[in-house]
Design goal:
Layout lengths: L18 E6 L5 E7 L6 E5 L10 H7 L4 E5 L15 H15 L6 E6 L1 H9 L3 H6 E7 L6 H4 L9 H11 L10 H11 L6 H12 L3 H12 L4 H6 L4 E6 L7 H10 L3 E7 L6 H4 L1 H27 L1
Parallel strand pairs: 3-4, 3-5, 5-6, 6-7, 7-8
Antiparallel strand pairs: 1-2, 2-4
Helix pairs in contact: 1-13, 2-3, 7-8
């Protein structure tokens, strides 16, 4: 588990959950799950990215939990979820399915939101029965389905073998990140955020990322290095919106545009000028508004259809 080194005040301080759950995945791995908001409100499920935790969604939870039931979980080895021996896209899918089954009632629908590796969890689970049972719509933030190392812009060189090799070394380093220092903030901002990101946004992200154990960070970097979920994009048969920052070096807009081209039911792409990889932190109001839009459009429609079928 991580050291839970998140900020304790301001808009990115994690709010206290209404309740907490421990969910057991297919291989026995335990996952920490938080539930926020009214118990019978429309449901939203949030899946965070590599080296993050539920704290990453603080702004969305604070906004949406006023009138939604917001379910956020820590990926295995992140946040309060214990370290696991298994690291794979199948494990990501198993974990998301387990959270959906435990946190939602049978047949209950939810908007599922994935950022970065959380979006990859959605793609990995897209063809599975329990995901299809529960997901009514999806928001993919700053994510991709393949060629992550080849397309990364973290290393400022022309595309080619040298850049790919250096990127693999940078993203797959086993080195500890250490304390959150001014230099560490500058490095994190360069790699993961837009140049105009406010200091309090950088601080919030730095604390979350630096809390992730280096062994966990490294293990998942190997999964991302060889990622191939293009088939999952084609199997994601629910309305799906895509958000990306134009200054995203980790998963640049080429990934978002490829998703849009392959998704069976894409309902739009939003490219945020000058923003980086951490879009839910860098543009909290916009990301929350996108989630609300999906909930109003598809959850309310689904509920109305269920009422109609029952009459």
């Amino acid at each position: 588990m991580s050291r839970l080194m998140h900020v304790s005040s301001g808009p990115y301080a994690p709010p206290a959950p209404t309740r907490e759950l421990t969910v057991t995945s297919a291989d026995g791995s335990r996952l920490h799950v938080e539930v926020h908001g009214p118990e019978h409100a429309p449901a939203v499920v949030l899946a965070h990215g590599w080296s993050c935790s539920t704290a990453f969604w603080a702004a969305q939870i604070r906004d949406l939990s006023a009138d939604h039931r917001v379910i956020a979980y820590d990926q295995r080895g992140h946040g309060r979820s214990p370290v696991s021996v298994a690291h794979s896209t199948d494990a990501l899918a198993d974990d998301l399915e387990a959270v959906l089954e435990k946190a939602l009632a049978p047949g209950e629908k939810a908007v599922v939101v994935g950022h970065s590796m959380g979006g990859m969890a959605v793609l990995a689970a897209a063809g599975r029965a329990r995901f299809r049972e529960h997901a009514v719509a999806v928001l993919l933030c700053s994510t991709g389905s393949s060629r992550l190392v080849d397309e990364s812009l973290v290393v400022p060189l022309r595309a080619g073998r040298t850049r790919t090799w250096l990127t693999r070394k940078v993203l797959g380093t086993r080195a500890p990140l250490g304390p959150v220092t001014p230099a560490a903030r500058r490095i994190l901002k360069y790699g993961t955020m837009g140049p105009g990101s406010a200091p309090h946004m950088v601080e919030a992200c730095a604390r979350i990322v630096h809390a992730c154990p280096r062994a966990v960070r490294y293990a998942w970097s190997r999964v991302l290095d060889s990622l191939d979920l293009d088939h999952g994009v084609r199997e994601l048969a629910v309305p799906t919106a895509v958000v990306v920052g134009t200054a995203d070096r980790m998963t640049p807009p080429v990934h978002a545009r490829a998703l849009v081209a392959a998704l069976p039911q894409c309902v739009g792409i939003t490219e945020l000028a000058g923003l980086g990889h951490m879009t839910p932190v860098e543009a909290p109001e916009l990301v929350s508004a996108k989630i609300r839009e999906l909930a109003v459009t598809y959850l309310e429609f689904d509920q109305a259809e269920q009422v109609k079928e029952g009459t």
